[in-house]
Amino acid sequence: MNVARYYHTASTLANGLVLVVDGIGRFGNLNSVELYNPSTGIWTTTGNMNVNRYLHTASTLANGYVLAAGGIRDVVDLNSVELYNPSTGTWITTGNMNVARAIHTALRLMNGYVLVVGGRNADGILNSAELYNPSRGTWTITGNMNAPRYGHTVSMLANGSVLVVGGSNKDGYLDSAEIYNPSTGTWTIIANMNVARGHQTASTLANGSVLVVGGSNNGVYLNSVELYNPSIGTWITTRSMNVARGEHTASILPNGSVLVTGGMDSVSIFNNPELY
Questions:
Q1: Which SUPFAM superfamilies does the entry link to (predicted)?
Q2: What count of other Cβ atoms lies within 10 Å of the Cβ of residue 4?
Q3: Which of the residues 82, 101, 105, 252 has an alpha carbon 20 to 30 A from that of 130?
Q4: If DSSP codes are grouped into helix, strand and coil, which group holds residue 31?
């Protein structure tokens, strides 16, 4: 990249380029957006956001635009939202969320709406969720989770429902999991994971299972890995990673393997990948 950063987002566009947005750099908040071309390995700059931010979310919409929501600017929690137009390389503002939030999650649903879940702000840790309507550019409140949480993961299941796992709140790190039903706007508690964790990854595999990898719990970084089976609603442990890590990424490869890259523990920042 042209600028080193963390607490940024990375989104794959319809043209195959990867859009990397803002974050924190060596001297603080960044107002810097870049595009990576996987074919050439070259990074180029593109238009800056109207309001720079970190710990936000970025979701690619069905029309190819990228929706960047919430986050933090300096020490201010944001409810502002912007859209990136890949054709022009520019950002426009769209409707604000009802609640300012950071360290939340966002997922595009099968109907094209974007579900934003949880997070935290100056008032505390959130259990609220909102839906963005791309056609109208507006947000509506949907059902609250049963437990407030941030640093959790969100995954789409084969039937279109949404699995939220782990994270933390005032009670500590969570082993709890919930499923959101987009048809009813309600949440259902399901079986707990075997290990409480936050800042993990969760990947939906080709067989419909969800692979939850690593993370941390009260300063202890985890190498444990679990699989959720939606058909029977249970968790099983599977082979652990070689290196305990949190704040990493996980990508599903064309052959179905899961590539885990980067991350950190209490001592090191990692560049050694692992394959599941």
A1: Galactose oxidase, central domain
A2: 10
A3: 252
A4: coil
Extract the tokens encoding 139: 């947000």
What average pLDDT does the structure give for the chain?
96
User: What does the domain layout of the chain look like in residue ranges?
Assistant: 151-275
Q: Tokens standing for 10?
A: 């990375």
1 pLDDT band, cuts 50/70/90, is confident
**Biggest alpha carbon–alpha carbon distance for the chain:** 49
53: nearest Cα among 5, 97, 85: 5
Residue 251 sits at the vertex; the CA angle it makes with 261 and 187, to the nearest 5 degrees, is 115
DSSP 150: B
Residue 262 has pLDDT above 90, yes or no: no
What is the length of the chain? 276
For 152, the token pair is: 């959790």
Determine whether 6 is exposed, middle or buried from the number of CB atoms within 10 Å of its CB (0-12, 13-18, 19+): middle
pLDDT number for residue 117: 99
CATH number 2.120.10.80 is the correct assignment for the domain at 151-275: yes
pTM: 0.93
> Among candidates 70, 102, 66, which has minimal Cα distance to 83?
66
SS3 of 171-184: the string is CEECCCEEEEECCC
DSSP for 197-233 reads: -BS-EEEE-TTS-EEEE--EETTEE---EEEEETTTT
